[in-house]
């Protein structure tokens, strides 16, 4: 009887941990809202290290654009976080749409967008391409078309990294302003 009780308690504990993780994974939120002291950085697609233009891309990124695609480590100092935030702000551009080219090259590399505004994605390539902010926010655009998407995962202003196609890191950043 005592052994059975221990097994039941262990199963319930494991079930609670699994349920807690599933609830956490479902609720995707940025790490923080942007302030001068602690800029928001939400880059689930961005690995550490220097980023390069996608293979086959005719667009050559500037050194500042590459820096904007390389977020600081989670344990970065406030000065490192602010330097990254300042780089993103300096590179961010307003545009009518995020444009995808061959091999998922993007323009602008950092798109500035007001919170609540839809994201327009224009696919200039000859094949369908997808932009992914996280596993629940993947937007596909057929070749030669422009589509508009609501960014329901954006709750606050901040910096959101995204991947495109089979890229293994951040293809670009979305700078959301309040």
Summarize the structure.
The protein has 178 residues and is α/β, with parallel strands linked by helices. It has three helices and ten strands; from the N terminus they run αβααβββββββββ.
Question: How does this model look, in words?
Answer:
By secondary structure, the protein is of the alpha/beta class. It has a single domain, classed as Cupredoxins -  blue copper proteins (Immunoglobulin-like, Sandwich), CATH 2.60.40.420. 25% of the residues lie in helices and 25% in strands. The protein contains three helices and ten strands, in the order αβααβββββββββ. The strands form two sheets. Strands 1, 4, 6, 7, 9 and 10 form a six-stranded mixed beta sheet that branches. The chain has a four-stranded mixed beta sheet with strand order 3-2-5-8, with no helix packed on it. The longest helix is centred in the N-terminal third of the chain and has 25 residues, at 2-26. The chain is extended, with a radius of gyration of 19 Å.
Structural key phrases:
four-stranded mixed sheet, 3 helices, 178 residues, Immunoglobulin-like, alpha/beta
**CATH architecture term:** Sandwich
Mean pLDDT: 77
DSSP summary: helix tally = 3
Unreliable spans = 24-57
H/E order of the elements?
A: HEHHEEEEEEEEE
What's the end-to-end separation, in Å?
A: 59 Å
* % residues in beta strands: 25-35%
Number of domains: 1
How is the main sheet built?
Answer: 6 strands, mixed
Alpha-beta content class: alpha/beta
CATH topology-level fold name: Immunoglobulin-like
């Amino acid at each position: 009887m005592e052994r059975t009780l221990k097994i039941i308690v262990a199963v319930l504990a494991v079930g609670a941990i699994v349920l807690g993780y599933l609830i956490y994974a479902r609720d995707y939120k940025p790490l923080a809202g942007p302030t001068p002291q602690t800029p928001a950085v939400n880059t689930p697609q961005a690995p550490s290290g220097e980023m390069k233009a996608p293979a086959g891309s005719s667009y050559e990124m500037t050194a500042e654009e590459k820096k904007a695609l390389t977020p600081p480590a989670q344990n970065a100092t406030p000065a490192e976080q602010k330097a990254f935030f300042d780089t993103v702000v300096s590179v961010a551009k307003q545009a009518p749409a995020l444009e995808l080219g061959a091999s998922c090259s993007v323009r602008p590399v950092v798109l500035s967008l007001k919170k609540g505004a839809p994201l327009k994605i224009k696919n200039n390539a000859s094949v369908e391409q997808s932009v992914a902010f996280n596993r629940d926010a993947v937007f596909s655009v057929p070749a030669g078309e422009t589509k508009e998407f609501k960014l329901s995962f954006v709750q606050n202003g901040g910096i959101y990294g995204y991947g495109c196609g089979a890229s293994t890191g951040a293809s670009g950043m979305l700078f959301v302003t309040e």
